[in-house]
Every structure is written in structure tokens, then in C-alpha cells.
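Worked Example 4.2. Read the sequence first, then its C-alpha cells.
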Amino acid sequence: MNNPLSQGNGDPSPYEPELGSLPNGGAAGTDDETVNKTGTTTIGITTDEGVVIATDMRASLGGRFVSNKNVQKVEQIHPTGALTLVGSVGGAQSFISTLRAEVNLYESRRDEPMPIEALATLAGNFARGGPFRAINPILGGVDSEGSHVYSIDPAGGVMADDYTVTGSGMQLAYGLLEQEYEDDLSLADAKSVAARAIKSAVERDTGSGNGVFLAEVTGEGVDIQGHEEFDAVI
């Protein structure tokens, strides 16, 4: 039986939806040349005293042109927690704003800080089901259970570890961390190790560079400082 809505002469039926054409690659074919990306090397290290998070400071267009040399890629999102920016800048900034709002809402409803594990689970759920583009951040925080570092993958996977690295320079940074990390690192030593790992990545990864931001997370709060010269912290 013929479809009464189709026209036999090949012309589209006036009753059917009009379909437009998609650019090459469909929705995934966004022009990466015009999207600000962090490129990036980000590191999280746990210690008995707290957590250290380190990032480089470079943003690029399409991975080839340096669009900004002083990007703060770690932000406080919790009274004792911080998150890194990895991937497209817009997606990462939106992700951070959303998590901050949820942390504040949790605290106002329950009159207590959100546990870092719960925040990591929430971040994974948002990464998997939300509109955030190509993010792979590190979440570090301190709560009554101790120090925590989680990597959040673009599909929403949440993995806890003593130390972790994400971003385009991760292989270079991991090489140094595997040699230098110890279970009894002090917070000061962890900052030095993290800065040296960022420097190692910056030497070879074109998506990373221009200095280091260091976040020190303890039970007292989050302290974030930028350093254009690695010698100041190594």
C-alpha cells in the first residue's frame, strides 16, 4: 500500500517535516579552529596534610595558536575542594559553575559541606549526561574522610587515586610522577613534585606552557597561586 503522505513524483510531501542538511561530521563537526581549548597538563596529588593540584597556564585555538598565556585552569568549587579545567574552555567553565551551584545548594539544605566522594559522583553524572564538551578534569578535596583526588573522564567515569594526571601532556608528567611520588610526601614536597611534572610536560607538549598554577587544598580551605617561573616553586 502506498504511503498517502508521499508524492509519487519525488517531490517532498507538504505534510512531512522539512529536513535540512548537516555540516560535515554533523554536530560533532564543530570548527575546532575557533574553539578555545586548554590543551593542558593537570595534576592532582594526595598527601596526609591535604591535596596539591597543579596546571599549566596556556590556552590555544585548534591546538596550534596560543590564544592566552595566563589561564587559571584550577578553580575552587567547594569550601575544601577544587577542580581543573581540561578540554574546551566554555564547557569547562560551565561545568565548574554548575558544580559550584550544586555544592552551595547541598550545604544550604543540609547545613553541612558536601562530601568529596559525593561531589565526585555528581561530577561524573554531569559529565556523562550534561551538555559539557570534551572535559576530563581532576577533582581534589579534603573532608572528614581524608584527602581525595579523582579524575573525571568525558564519559562520566570517576576514578580515585593517590595521584593522577589528565590533558595532552599527561604521558610526560606521569613519567616524572612515577619516579618521584611517595606515600609520605609533605604538602610542600608534593607542590615541588607537581610543579616539576608540569615543567616536564611543558618542555615537549605544545598544548601546555607559560607557567604553573598551584592549588593547595587542606581542611582550612583552598589556596591558589600562579607562578610564571617554575624556579619559584621547584
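Now turn to a second chain, presented in exactly the same format:
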Amino acid sequence: MSVQEPLKNILEAALLAAGKTLSLEQMAALFAAGGEPDKAALREALEALRGDYEGRGMELKQVAGGYRIQVRAEYAQWVSRLWDEKPGRYSRALMETLALIAYRQPITRGEIEEIRGVSVNTYIIKTLMEREWVRVVGHRDVPGRPALYATTRAFLDYFGLRSLDELPTLAEIRDLGEIDRELQQQAAEASAPRSGLPLAGEEPEPGLPDAANEPPDDRNREKQDIEKQGAE
């Protein structure tokens, strides 16, 4: 047994029990004061654990918030059959808004509307902020001082990214529709129900917009509904 084997086993047990992302600081806090391993030792043990999972149905994944053990995405279609209820899907309008914030941040609501060519439903911004995928990072220095939106670490964790650099480059994506489809695919993998081990993220909470209550392609109806509600 190597010197790092006990540490590796402790970290594996903690990650399995937590069922969520743990930071290096949270892992170090598992040990008694004065006996905490340093970050280099933690990373070495985690790298060894990652190697143990090569060729298996689960993997050790590093994301912006730390590390987690999850089912590999290629096995999600089988694992998801353990649950009768299908995960909810996000509307095209929500995913396009999120994509614009991710790629153009910081960005105002008005700039999003100008690019999309339709008003942004207030509920979409509210949903993104409640999910903690988006936050206000400042205000544009123009009349009205509109809020500037940007993505969060929770956004990166949910989509299994370590940083925004791991998003497909705009050169690889021809138009907004392709960005939408890319994020929608990642969301489908990330939102599969879980029990114990996560798949690639958390199950969407009930009440999020989906194809049933906000038709993905009917933007005119979306705009009419907003006007009726007296939205901006």
C-alpha cells in the first residue's frame, strides 16, 4: 500500500458520501487540526483516484467548485431509467439567454433583447438567478444604469466546466442556435435524476420553463404575453 493510499481512500469515501462537489478546503477540513494534508498531497491523491476510475462507469470530475464523483455522461441514458419521472427540459428562450450571458458577459438585458430580437421574459432572468447560474456584477454607465449580468461558479459546476475557457469557441459555433443546442445537450446530460452518485449535475427543480409552458419557437407569443403582463 502506497503512502497516499489511505488518503486516497478517505477522499473517495467523502466524495461518495457527499454526493456533490467538494473543494480542497472542504477535504482538508475532514482531518483533525494540525493533521491536515496540504493541497499538493490532496491533488496527488485525487489524481491517483482519477486513474483508478479509468475505463469504469464513473469518473472523478474537476469543476470550478472542486471535485466530485459522477456517472460518466455516456452511461446516462441507461442510469436515468432507474427513475420513472423524466428530467425537465429548459426552453429555447431560457437557453439562448443563458448562452448570450455566458459568451458576451458582462451583458445587459437590453443587449440580450437586441441580439435575440424579442423581449426577455422577466421570469427567465429570475429563474437563472434563482438557480444561481447568473448574477449581477455591476451596472452599465448609461441612462437608467441597467444591470450587467454574468455567469457564476455554480453555472460552471452544473455544466461540468472548470472555467469559461472550456466552452466551445465562437469560431466553432456558427450561430446562436448552435450555442443553444450545445448548452441544451449539456443540460440534458447534467439534469438527469440522481441517487447517490451524481450524473453530470443536479435535477432541475419543478416549475422551471419547459416546452410545455413556453413554446421554444413561438417568440411572437412570448412577446405578446410579456406585453399583456406589462413587462418591460
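Notes for the reader: Confidence is low (pLDDT under 50) at residues 191-232. Strands lie at 58-63, 66-71, 107-108, 134-139, 147-151.
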